[in-house]
């Protein structure tokens, strides 16, 4: 869709500074929620023993994903180049249908709304939504 | 017909009793108009929607937020037959208002986020799932009379 303006990038970086101390917990919550609210996403994790919210593999993976998002914030000026390796991973190895990136993004926004009820204003929301969409697009780059 | 578990019924009723409907409706509509600006196409008569501050303080936007919540409360009272309860609303949205039904999902997402921020930690994954199922049924019912 639309590319990130300078205002979007500044908003994302400023908000990320608030997120980063709790990034792992936020990632874990968003990821658990996705598995509960959108059960079809569990199909990618059939090889895990425990998919319940708060389980060890779920928490660990939520933290891993948020690490990827943190990386994207640092590379916000060129997401396509910056996320090339992750794109290859998702395209050739994991083969996650890109529609799921939107689903995970939604759940991240829900957790951000819960964690930062006053700071997650509509202006922050629109910049974060655009950013996560741009990350999803960069992740989809190598798919075909 | 939609099957609701006891947990879902109780949870959805509880959400509506806990939230401040005078706040949630206006907040969700204004968030939708800000985060997805193309939705403003349906509100040409609302006056100043020029920026986020204008949208948030626009009295017509706030009034419309309350109308939307009243509609959801109607669904809440008729959970076992939302489809028929919404028949006229669906015709209104398709034939008179001509709203692209994909927009209903955008508003549903904004409602979820506003309710989440109001309820905080009480908005657990299971509560979120119940609420999103309710909104999905509402959206499907609103889409029903589009031909």
Q: What layout of secondary structure does this protein have?
A:
The complex is a heterodimer of chains A (144) and B (147).
Chain A: H1 6-19, H2 23-37, H3 56-74, H4 79-82, H5 84-94, H6 99-115, H7 122-140
Chain B: H1 6-18, H2 21-35, H3 52-57, H4 59-77, H5 82-85, H6 87-96, H7 102-119, H8 125-143
Description:
Chain A: Involved in oxygen transport from gills to the various peripheral tissues. Chain A: Keywords: Heme, Iron, Metal-binding, Oxygen transport, Transport. Chain A: It holds the Pfam family Globin. Chain A: It comes from Xenoophorus captivus. The complex is a heterodimer of chains A (144) and B (147). Helix content of chain A is 69%, strand content 0%. Chain A has seven helices and no strands. The two termini of chain A are 18 Å apart. By secondary structure, chain A is mainly alpha-helical. The mean pLDDT of chain A is 95. Chain B is built from eight helices and no strands.
In a few lines, what is going on in this structure?
Chain A has 144 residues and is mainly alpha-helical. Helix content of chain A is 69%, strand content 0%.
Oligomeric nature of the chains: heterodimer
- Report the strand count of chain A: 0
Report the span from N to C terminus of chain A: 18 Å
Main sheet attributes: strand count, strand direction, barrel closure of chain A:
none
Q: Which pair of chains has the greatest number of interface residues, and how are they split between the two chains?
A: A-B, 19 and 23 residues
Shape of chain A: globular
Q: In which range does the helix fraction of chain B lie?
A: over 70%
Radius of gyration of chain B: 15 Å
Query: Biggest β-sheet of chain B: count, sense, barrel?
Result: none
- Structural category of chain A is mainly alpha
The global form of chain B is globular
The helix-strand sequence of chain B is HHHHHHHH
- How does the helix and strand content of chain B classify structurally? mainly alpha
Mean pLDDT across all amino acids of chain A:
95
What letter string, H or E per element, gives the SSE order of chain A?
A: HHHHHHH
Rounded to an integer, what's the Rg of chain A over CA atoms? Answer: 15 Å
Fraction of residues in β-strands of chain A: under 5%
